[in-house]
């Protein structure tokens, strides 16, 4: 029994006792079950396993602290109405907003933050990390850290463009279908069904094999693949609004379809659409990352997280975690967006259970 | 019962029509190529003679409709033409790999389905406790991670650092079944992680939806123990959504399998498809896409039929 193990269990048990004493049932349950799990883990994995648990707990605490501070910061700087909303945000949502904020900064100011250029070869291949290169060099001798920063601009930027395009197409089609109805509605609906009946990655691969892996081809193909999802949601939301009396009234006034969409339907369907935008972004982002990972997405020398994982994957067989960092960056952003979307769905639709 | 049979047949027919439309899409998408297949294959090195020869060989001088029916007729009996790159028959290239892919997906499904349904029910029972929140965050993280991220983490910790499982899932003919399971464990586990998270969340949502209904409230109010409420009252009605969830997630496996196969260099259809796409080997791409799409449609169909079978209310559409 080392000092670390004794201290570890003492801290856990003391914390659970404190939680029990102050009647914090949830906290107590969590801490005490962690103690029980640690017994098993400690027997199987020994001291290293317990160390991992400690590090994870520390990281979680750090993340929780950061998100708490960030939420307070947002509450302080925003207007009273918005601040009241923000106070209801769970810590996970605050964490998500913090991560998105960080990525946005990294993406916008990439050339100033990154110490080296995006495709600048500065050392030998797979050179280890030193003062000028935080994470070492990749397979061509480019600085991995700089490329990750630039990746925030490229990968996220392209995903954003594709999502926006998918959204504009899907939402427009959905709104028009809801307003016009009839054969137009049916036609678009069936088209969406067909597109959705092919798995998205497979469809993307088919299209890329035909049109080549040009950047714009990727954006358009991905947008086409994901627009049916937006279409369905918009159609459903708008379908509920179209039957309202005020729409009837506007129609009787002689307003055109475009007016109805813009002034009557859209303002009443923004909340679910914004949440859908977040979800859609996650799907698009993961699909593009997957394509880049397969070598069929964003082409070199543009720095992109998916292709960085692929290019440096050999390092993993030497036990080096550097190739996992861009993959983790992808996962972190998707998780963050999901957290925020979860909260928005909960808030806007009164959807109590996801 | 005849009524039910008719309904199921109708769904099957609709599925067939969808498949037909998808096959049209897959075939004619290639026709959209700027120029034609022959030009795309030969690229810069094309001369008039080689172009004409290749067109002749591929039968491009016939109208597209005729070629489509030829292709479809072949596809129905399992003949997808010859590869443009190697000149081998596409069916030979795909057959073994398709079995491998099915094996991997089945392996993952056998582990994932019971675990995720069990965990889903448990989490639904513990809803709004701290365990539920933790499970929510963990599953969300697992869903949000790209498959290759999970795959490489598993390789790093289970293959490189501890050497418990092989990092590359190479298969050979003379392996025992146990060895096969051992070799393909990591790719299967990657798929399990992604799919379990999905299924858990959906099972939880399905059960919680049910638990809000008045008859469950009634059972609870008359003093029934919670497990009995779940097993006797909620579960019989939850089968329909759960079957739906399982089928949808098996369909999801189809997409996940492509990335996982590439990560673990697993000899399956996904790997073949990716190679064919980068080489622009259209017959193989079309065949793989059709197979994936057919499986996907079939599983979605299974979800619908399962829902109809387990939920009598769906048998009488309003």
Written account of the structure:
- The complex is a heterodimer of chains A (354) and B (318).
- Chain A is mostly helical.
- Chain A has 2 domains: 3-87, no CATH class; 118-349, MetI-like fold, CATH 1.10.3720.
- Chain A has 14 helices and no strands.
- Chain A has helices at residues 3-21, 25-77, 80-87, 91-108, 110-113, 144-180, 182-196, 200-211, 215-242, 245-252, 257-265, 270-293, 305-311, 324-349.
- In chain A, α2 (25-77) packs antiparallel against α3.
- The longest helix of chain A is centred in the first third of the chain and has 53 residues, at 25-77.
- By secondary structure, chain B is mainly α.
- Chain B has 2 domains: 2-76, no CATH class; 97-315, Orthogonal Bundle (MetI-like fold), CATH 1.10.3720.10.
- Chain B has 13 helices and no strands.
- Chain B has helices at residues 2-31, 37-42, 48-58, 64-76, 90-125, 130-144, 147-161, 177-183, 185-211, 214-221, 226-263, 269-279, 282-310.
- In chain B, α10 (214-221) packs across α11 (226-263), α11 (226-263) packs across α12 and α12 (269-279) packs antiparallel against α13.
- The radius of gyration of chain B is 24 Å and the shape is globular.
Descriptive key words:
heterodimer, A: 354 residues, mainly alpha, MetI-like fold, 14 helices, globular, B: 318 residues, 2 domains, 13 helices
């Amino acid at each position: 029994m080392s000092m670390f193990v004794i201290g570890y269990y003492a801290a856990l048990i003391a914390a659970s006792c404190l939680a029990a004493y102050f009647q914090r049932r949830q906290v107590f349950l969590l801490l005490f079950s962690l103690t029980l799990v640690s017994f098993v883990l400690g027997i199987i994995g020994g001291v290293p396993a317990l160390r991992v648990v400690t590090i994870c707990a520390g990281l979680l605490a750090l993340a929780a602290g950061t998100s708490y501070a960030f939420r307070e910061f947002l509450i302080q700087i925003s207007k009273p109405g918005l601040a009241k909303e923000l106070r209801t945000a769970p810590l996970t949502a605050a964490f998500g907003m913090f991560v998105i904020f960080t990525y946005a900064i990294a993406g916008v100011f990439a050339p100033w933050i990154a110490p080296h250029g995006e495709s600048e070869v500065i050392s030998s291949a797979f050179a280890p990390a030193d003062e000028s290169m935080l994470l070492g060099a990749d397979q061509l001798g480019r600085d991995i850290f700089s490329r990750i920063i630039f990746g925030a601009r490229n990968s996220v930027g392209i995903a954003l463009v594709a999502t926006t395009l998918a959204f504009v197409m899907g939402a427009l089609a959905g709104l028009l279908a809801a307003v016009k109805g009839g054969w137009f509605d049916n036609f678009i609906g069936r088209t969406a069904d067909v597109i959705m009946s092919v798995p998205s990655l497979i469809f993307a691969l088919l299209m890329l094999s035909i049109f080549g892996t040009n950047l714009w081809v990727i954006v358009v193909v991905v947008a086409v693949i994901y627009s049916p999802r937006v279409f369905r949601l918009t159609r459903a939301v708008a379908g509920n609004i179209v039957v309202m009396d005020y729409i009837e009234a506007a129609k009787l006034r002689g307003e055109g379809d475009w007016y109805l969409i813009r002034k009557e339907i859209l303002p009443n369907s923004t909340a679910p659409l914004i949440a859908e935008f977040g979800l859609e972004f996650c799907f698009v982002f993961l699909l593009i990352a997957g394509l880049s990972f397969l070598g069929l997405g964003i082409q070199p020398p543009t720095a992109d997280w998916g292709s960085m994982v692929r290019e440096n994957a050999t390092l993993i067989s030497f036990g080096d975690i550097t190739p996992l960092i861009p993959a983790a960056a992808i996962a972190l952003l998707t998780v963050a967006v999901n957290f925020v979307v979860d909260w928005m769905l909960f808030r806007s639709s009164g959807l109590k259970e996801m | 019962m005849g009524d039910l049979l008719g309904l199921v047949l109708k769904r099957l027919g609709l599925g067939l029509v969808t498949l037909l439309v998808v096959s049209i899409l897959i075939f004619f998408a290639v026709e959209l190529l700027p120029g034609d297949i022959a030009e795309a294959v030969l690229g810069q090195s094309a001369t008039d003679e080689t172009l004409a020869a290749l067109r002749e060989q591929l039968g491009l001088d016939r109208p597209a409709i005729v070629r489509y029916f030829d292709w479809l007729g072949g596809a129905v009996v399992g003949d997808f033409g010859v590869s443009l790159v190697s000149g081998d028959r596409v069916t030979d290239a795909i057959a073994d790999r398709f079995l491998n892919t099915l094996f991997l997906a089945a392996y993952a499904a056998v582990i994932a389905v019971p675990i995720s349904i069990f965990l889903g029910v448990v989490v639904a029972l513990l809803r709004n406790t701290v365990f539920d929140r933790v499970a929510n965050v963990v599953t969300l993280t697992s869903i949000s991670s790209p498959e290759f991220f999970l795959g490489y983490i598993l390789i790093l910790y289970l293959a490189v650092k501890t050497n418990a499982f092989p990092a590359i899932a190479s298969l050979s003919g003379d392996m025992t079944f146990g060895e096969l399971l051992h070799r393909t464990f990591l790719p299967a586990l990657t798929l399990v992680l992604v799919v379990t998270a999905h299924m858990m969340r959906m099972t939880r949502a399905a059960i919680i939806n049910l638990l809000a209904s008045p008859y469950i409230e009634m059972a609870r109010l008359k003093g029934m123990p919670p497990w009995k409420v779940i097993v006797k009252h909620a579960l019989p009605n939850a089968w329909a959504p759960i079957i739906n969830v399982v089928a949808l997630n098996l369909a999801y496996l189809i997409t996940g399998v492509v990335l996982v196969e590439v990560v673990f260099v697993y000899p399956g259809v996904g790997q073949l498809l990716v190679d064919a796409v980068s080489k622009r080997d259209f017959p193989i791409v079309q065949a793989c896409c059709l197979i994936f799409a057919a499986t996907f449609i079939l599983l979605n169909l299974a979800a619908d039929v399962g829902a109809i079978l387990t939920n009598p209310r769906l048998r009488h559409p309003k």
